[in-house]
Fold each of these.
Amino acid sequence: MENFFNDEIEKVVFISEEQLCNLSVKKLYGRYWEDTFIYNIFPASLCDKGDLLCDVLKEGSEPSKEGFCAIRTDGKLSFYFDGKKLKIESYGLYQSIFSRNKGILETDKMTRKRAVILGCGSVGSLVAMELARAGVGHFLLADPDIVEYHNICRHQCGIEDVGDLKINALERKLKNINPHVEISKFEGIVQNLPKAQLDEFCTEGDTVFVGCADNRAADVYANKISIYYGAYFISIGFWERAYAGEIFYHIPGKGMPCYECALGDGGNISARAQANHHVYSNQEDTEGLKFEPGISVDINFITTIGIKIIIDMLNSNSDGYIPRVTNDLKQYTVICNTSNTEIGGEMVEIFSYPLQITTSLVVGFGKKQCKESCSCKYELEEK
Ligand SMILES: [Zn+2]
């Protein structure tokens, strides 16, 4: 290919430093982009996502007269097209991926952080993807369901994932952001997660449990086990058609009420908020065609606020980290997407304007036995 002046437009090879110097590689996979003349060689762990681009030829081999090839030369790889040597742009994979987080999040610390994603639907998949982008290095994904066509309009996964388990599909998406991410998976509901798997995964102070299953019982259970592991907890749930959502978080050892103390038995939450908590995926089964699910943008707006809280909690012990939201948001936050009654029904009257975030909802110890001692009984339990 030539430009206006008959100068040849050169092809370029993008490859990580690790792969450039890896002498055991026999085949290279990735993508060639015809419009940009770029060969993007994928990291070895993603080879199944790419096309086979070439075999790696032995040291001293002649480059092929036609097409693309790689030859081992002086402990590195050289690339040729139609016999002509190509320019290489190599990069440190890890440093490059997270270069734009620099000065905001400490990549070395983030890579030690761990997230237990309880429910890998529209909410859980977005939380996991954003945490991977923030540099979280370890995920435990729990969900019993498979990806179906009706999930796609609200999920991070797409048509290529339909038919597979959500935990497998999400694992692929996370590896596509950071191939070094470590993933543990459980095909089932929160309440069936084996203790041994949690024991192996959780590290005190570096782990967050993210409750994005579709019911309060799962959140009550998840917060109980997060306390056992000295881990942070957050629940992100939605009201009817996702016109509003609620976020609850718990930091262990700070004398905070847990999910059950605060919300489990009605607690101090208004009856209106209780009545309004419609669980979006269960509703689909019970109400059939009448069900009008929340659209992705409404779910994502509220979920993103939850993700900011998670990043604040995970960095709360880091020197110099400036919290985005936790200094201002109380433990329980209600957020609305609209104040239009045509979407939200009469309940929207509690919000004067759309995109409001409540900062005034204080939750206490609702359970009688917790109330008397002003502390959560699960935190007082011996491990
Ligand atoms: Zn409690």
Amino acid sequence: MKRIAIAFLVFLLCVSVASASSSETAIEAVSSGSNGDIGILSLGYTITQGDSNWHYKPITTSVTRFNIDLNWGDKTDSLKLYVYDPSNNLVGYYYDSADGKINGRINIDIVDYSGIEQGTWSICVYGYSVSGTEDYSI
Ligand SMILES: [Ca+2]
Ligand SMILES: [Ca+2]
């Protein structure tokens, strides 16, 4: 029962920001050309319509950008990505088109020229429009 309550809370947290606007800060997401250093644990995950899966990325060094590469490889399904800084502020949310291509992948760099906030960044993958079960890596 407790697990269900937590899962529901996470769902609410994810959905509640759906209507929020993108951040007013200097942080921006830019299309990334890199295929290399993904940074986040890159394993096979699955998601269904309306699901929220959370992933965490620790930033422990002084950097001005890091890459997020969410890849589900099926442009007929649509996943959505929410990015929160270590203070749990929503930095932005992104659709497949965020990197300029509808290709079943969201490959972006989070950029802050004054320095990426160190700590644990939280990334929520949301099943925005998914038929059946979709596999993805991040
Ligand atoms: Ca894309
Ligand atoms: Ca699919």
